[in-house]
Amino acid sequence: MQAENARCSDYIYFWGYHSSTFYPAQLGVGEYTVTVDFYSPTDGELLCSDTRTVYVIEVEIKDADGTDDPVEYVKTGGSESYTAVVTPDVEGTFSWNSTSDKISLSGAAQQTVTVSAGSEASDFVGAEELTLAFYSPSGEPVCENISVDLTVVGVREVSADDVDSEINEPGPEETLYVCRGDEVDTIEVTAEPDPEDSAWPEDT
User: Fold this and answer.
1) CA-to-CA distance for 105 and 99, rounded, in angstroms?
2) Residue 150: closest CA among 91, 74, 86
3) H or E, element range at 83
4) Which residue among 13, 25, 122, 127 is least packed, with the fewest CB closer than 10 Å?
5) Could you give the CA distance from residue 51 to residue 36 in angstroms, rounded to a whole number?
6) Rounded distance between C-alpha atoms, residue 68 and residue 81, angstroms
7) Higher-scoring residue by pLDDT: 178, 195
8) Residue 154 belongs to what H/E stretch?
9) Pairwise CA distance, residues 11 & 3, whole Å
10) Phi/psi of residue 45, each to 5°?
């Protein structure tokens, strides 16, 4: 941020640590009052002064409740919500976006967005990027390219007593037959997520 000196353009100005440039990265998150003093280059006399409020903010993507870390796995046909958390809590607008064809967004201009997954699983873990930008009340970009990598999870394989199936309508060799009334052991059924090395969503 450059100091404005239109009223005292012929004079030297400093931000407090004797620089004409203000570096917000050196400060923690919070609200700051910045005073710019303009001095005469000949005798050092203070000629004029101006004060501005500067917010150094942090924007994070959280779960729908605004507290927990964002859910990274969305099941096929399901949905998850994500909330933008701004610290300190200042006014502004939000813009959510994704270029993925595996997910769609609802409420992309709201603080909380809903991500809906289609019927196809991701090609790999973290393939679907959800991005967020935060703008000041005047429309100036403040924080951009905040992102979280999501994975749309489907069923890759189902196994019942070592009989595996990777298709929706298994044939005789992939089907388990049990006679009613037989005293058989418990049949263990397991499923593997798609894409490989992903994890099941918590509500699955």
Assistant:
1) 10
2) 74
3) strand 79-87
4) 25
5) 6
6) 12
7) 195
8) strand 141-160
9) 12
10) -70, 135
Does the N-terminal peptide bond of residue 41 adopt cis geometry, omega within 30 degrees of 0? no
Q: Mean of the pLDDT values across residues 133-141?
A: 95
Please state, in angstroms and as integers, the Cα–Cα distance from residue 148 to each residue in 3, 70, 89, 96, 200, following that order: 35, 8, 21, 11, 17
Position of tokens 């404005």?
4
- Per-residue model confidence as pLDDT tens digits over 55-86: 889 999 999 999 999 999 999 999 999 999 99
Share of the chain above pLDDT 90, in %: 47
What residues contact 92, with CB distance under 8 A and at least 6 apart? 86, 134, 135, 136, 137, 142
In this prediction, residue 149 carries a pLDDT of 97
Which amino acid makes up residue 197?
D
CB of 193 closer than 8 Å to CB of 122: no
